[in-house]
Amino acid sequence: MKEIMKEIELKYGCNPNQKPSRIFVEKGELPVEVLSGRPGYINFLDALNAWQLVSELRKATGLPAAASFKHVSPAGAAVGLPLSDTLKRIYFVDDIAGLDDSPVACAYARARGADRMSSYGDFIALSDTCDLPTALIIKREVSDGVIAPDFTPEALEILREKRKGTYNVIRIDSTYKPEPMERKQVFGITFEQGRNEIQLDDPALFENVPTANKTFSAEARRDLMIALITLKYTQSNSVCYVKDGQAIGIGAGQQSRIHCTRLAGQKADIWWLRQHPKVMSLPFVDGIRRADRDNTIDIYISDDHDDVLADGAWQQFFKTKPEPLSREEKRVWIAENRGVSLGSDAFFPFGDNIERAHKSGVEFIAQAGGSVRDDHVIMTCDKYGIAMAFTGVRLFHH
Length: 398
Hints:
By secondary structure, the chain is of the alpha/beta class. It is 35% helix and 20% strand. The protein has 14 helices and 15 strands. It has helices at 41-61, 85-90, 103-113, 116-119, 132-139, 153-161, 218-232, 257-273, 277-280, 290-301, 306-309, 327-334, 352-359, 374-384; strands at 7-9, 22-24, 32-36, 65-70, 73-79, 122-126, 143-148, 168-172, 181-186, 189-194, 238-243, 246-252, 340-344, 362-367, 387-390. It has a 6-stranded mixed beta sheet with strand order 3-8-7-6-4-5. A hairpin with a 2-residue loop joins strand 11 and strand 12.
């Protein structure tokens, strides 16, 4: 007879000095089962937030979904669309057997690959059963754990061997429905609110279009839904850029919305720059560690490229010294990015956000609306032919 689990003891809370620590339910049983490892407090915060995100993406798009979570915000989120040869290469999954036949593996490759610096040491959520190709991707990445509704025997065997058996593998009951009211304590005081059950796959969200351009392609609507659902589980303030079924830049937890837009835009630009021919042909030394390679690419793309190209430095990373990627080359390449969708978890207060978004190829926007400067925001969108919907929905998450 299956044991009813009502609580799981954790190693510690947010920090090692915060003991004891546990997760528990007052009624019923926990919807999660630890199949391997010993998850911590932050692991479960990431796992449960990420699971909600991928579950909603699955429902909204009808496609398997994956998320890469770090410190209670997504570093990446995506649905399982096929990968181009370019994306396979920049995500370093072109050697994964069976990838093309596994939508969930494609989803995780996208979620992990969009912002590899932020995804380092992530917690993974999968909307569908974790299969062998997905496990093969996870096996070689630095990660804290994975949550999914199930695992194939081959995938579970691989994951249980990761990190000498300490890798966190969590199975969740996909039929679980939480209580409509949620609570948490801060400084000994209990907060209570209704769960945020807003449905973001509602076509009515895109009916209020105040811009001159009122045309949203089917792909843009899908990508805007992905942006909004991602923002629903991202620490506010937050802005999300999406292209071709995946987040390519997430700006989370900033006090100023323009800083969210800049941060997310910078990440979107880096994602696009990683597809530049010079970056894709970098002559890395044999055996370079994955983390060192990712960090080197990030520096090479930045204005600090001399840190990896100076004499005495480049030899650590490259077989031959690469030419730098000039500012003009970067400007020209970034200008070629098009068809990007952008979502914001609240209204844009000024047109400067639109100006910055335009620089990263944004052509479609979904935001709450309701600023006293909506007229200026609309005017800036019209300046660039951007189609923008006022959803009337705020998506703060804390």
